[in-house]
Automatic annotation (TrEMBL):
Cofactor(s) for this UniProt protein: pyridoxal 5'-phosphate
Keywords linked to the UniProt accession: Transferase
Name of protein: 7-keto-8-aminopelargonate synthetase
PANTHER family recorded: CLASS II AMINOTRANSFERASE/8-AMINO-7-OXONONANOATE SYNTHASE
Gene Ontology molecular function, alphabetical: pyridoxal phosphate binding; transferase activity
InterPro entries, alphabetized: Acyl_CoA_acyltransferase, Aminotransferase_I/II_large, AON_synthase_class-II, PyrdxlP-dep_Trfase, PyrdxlP-dep_Trfase_major, PyrdxlP-dep_Trfase_small
Domain of life the protein comes from: Bacteria
Species classification: Bacteria, Pseudomonadati, Bacteroidota, Flavobacteriia, Flavobacteriales
Pfam families named in the record: Aminotran_1_2 (PF00155)
Amino acid sequence: MAKIKHNSFIDTVDEVIAGAKKEGVLHLYAEDQILNGRTLQIKGQKMFHFGTTGYLGLEQDIRLKNAAIAAIQNYGTQFPLSKTYISNPLYNELESKIESMYGIPPIITKNSTLGHLAVIPTVVRDEDGVILDHQVHWSVQNACQLLKIRGIPVEMIRHNNLNMLEDKIKYLATRCNKIWYMADGVYSMFGDFAPIPNLMELCKKYPQLHLYFDDVHGMSWRGKNGTGYVLDILKTLPDNVLLFGTLSKTFGASGATLICTDNRLREKIKNFGGPLTFSAQLEPASVAAAIASADIHLSTEITSLQCDLSEKIEYFKSLLVKTTLPMIVLNDSPVFFLGTAMPLTAYKMVQRLFNEGFYVNPAIYPAVPIKNTGIRITLSRHNQKQEIKALVEAMEFHFPKALEESGNSLNKVKKAFGIPETMPQIEDEEPKPNLIVQYETSIKKIDKQNWNNLLGKQSTFDWEGLSFLENAFSNTNSPENNWEFHYYVIKDKNEIPILATFFTYGLWKDDMLAPESISLQLEEKRKQNPLYLTSKVLGMGSLFTEGNHCYINKTHPLAEKAIVLLLEQVEIVYHKLDADILVLRDFEEDQQLNRIFHNQGFLKINMPETCIIQNSKWNSTEEFSATLSSRSRKHFFKEIVPFEQAFDIVIKDQLSDKELEQAYYLYQNVKNNNHAINTFTYPIEVFKKMESNRQWEFILLYLKNEEKEEITNPLIGILFCYKNTEHTYVPALIGMDYSCAKEFQLYRQLLFQAIKRARCLNLNKIDFGVSATFEKRKLGATIIPKVAYIQARDNFSMELMGTIQNEDKTHSKTK
């Protein structure tokens, strides 16, 4: 298989967080000498605190503070011993009080993240299966990674999509004993709820279904004894439900608690629940504070506290409904989300609210999809009505200004979040002053000379190459190889080109750049459903081409405005097509572009490196070898030159029907053997159109038959090559017979023959494309890193692929 450099998720997240940090909205420090819960001081400015998850304000309760202080005086700062051996003197009292709250003995864990790591691998057996809501908290998803090692199937559904959940249940029903669905009770970003009544109905319909709820954001402010949203809906905990609550956040202390009706299972978790066995226990101060909080939860005071918060939530909502602010969910949780769509709008809005004296949280990728960026606002009992009212007034005043400042609009935000329009939609905005946009859907409407001056000499997308692609991939019978073309040329008022590019719209496999192990498993599913896990993509360039698809005159004073204008124009088409993903691809690293694209709501990912040879003027094999490094020269004379004589090498610009059939078979060989870049297989009609196009030619390799002068042996290798504007040679596709490829160094020989042919045609450049960079470098290729910028309507496909097993064990178990 061809090797490529895959994108790192960590690098992508680092890029986003670093950008937000640079804007001054993340990685901040509170400077207060004394915290009161109502205000924070940041960079010398006092702000009202609308970012807490301590919704009832118990972290500032004097009873919890005094209990913690006394515990330190009596027992020290920690009790450094595993709880498996002995618990600190306060643990028994805490467990007793938590049991009184729930009516069920609890398991106390250091925090919810370690709790999930302790519980999930213990309760989910090898014969079970798991289904995740794709917005369930990261700590739950992370704990499920341990299940994959054991070959346990881990599936994922779109957020709260019960139809999809039922389909997954049916799929796992004959393969698994228990089926665990894992979800949050209250989701931490949008403040929406799990559909618990509907889930319980599914449990009746499918007795295998068990529910696992993380309800840390529903704790304390809701339910009898503050036992949370989930139990408030259920009233009593069924045997098939496991419930995680928290002793931190709204509870005001530290730790987490698992509630489970199965006594035997509870003991099993306590006996060997990973972090429960090997990690330190809660510090005495935390346990004492939790005991003090539990006393409040067990008293009538908790109802008073809940009512106080509820009154403020209702007040906040009553103010918000009178505005045009795009609040995503307005329910009775203390979590609110103001949609901004673009990160830059969120940054500007946060900065403006900071300046007005309000601290709020930016909500950015990966917590939300990049185009669903926004501001999370949380209420607590510390917030007073006057500052709640002032916050709404500040939001209403500054939001239009933040939109304007970032080139955004209310309509764009509503489109990003799927909010119905409440006013007539404004038609496409007028182009920016001093900029002229030419938008076409066929290259034939673009001036040939102008296009080639801007984007010729690269890959197969000069004017003639795009004419071929339109002919080959438009109006086809197969949806996966049927594309629409969109061309943009942006000029200044003097008709000087600033930017030119093209996009294609069609289906992409979501795993196109995923590791081969993931693609191999998805291809098994595509045998039954060929379009499984595919997306409608509006992508710069095309799946057939690679290289710099976007000409930008960076020296022009309007270059940045032209880039932003392009994004605005492309977004119009993106929404009209109802595409799932927007991709800007094959750029070299550029800080200016990074800033522009990130602020406009794009994620940067690393693309496979591309390979280019600038042909020097050599006239013999010896002269060519002199252009290589000494190490590559040894490789060349050992692994390439001696094998050249084993082949009959033929160059043709037309193929017979038999040759075309053989060539297509060899192409399919390579395509089916290589999932490093997992695209759809091109139909034979594409190759027939190549064969009839004067820009294409074919390098064919046959094994020599020494006994006969004519070629009688079968074709074993072929390159499908494009000649671009008398400048660039493009070996676009390859076909090989793997039965003899290794013995005769077939792949390397094909590369060398492409280099020889380009020199013979006096073409100065070879676009060698992506993959196998190690082999191409040995023949003198320059390796160029590339990046792309993507924008998806949600993170579902990416997160789903993260759940896919990487071991064959899973497949053998579930077949």
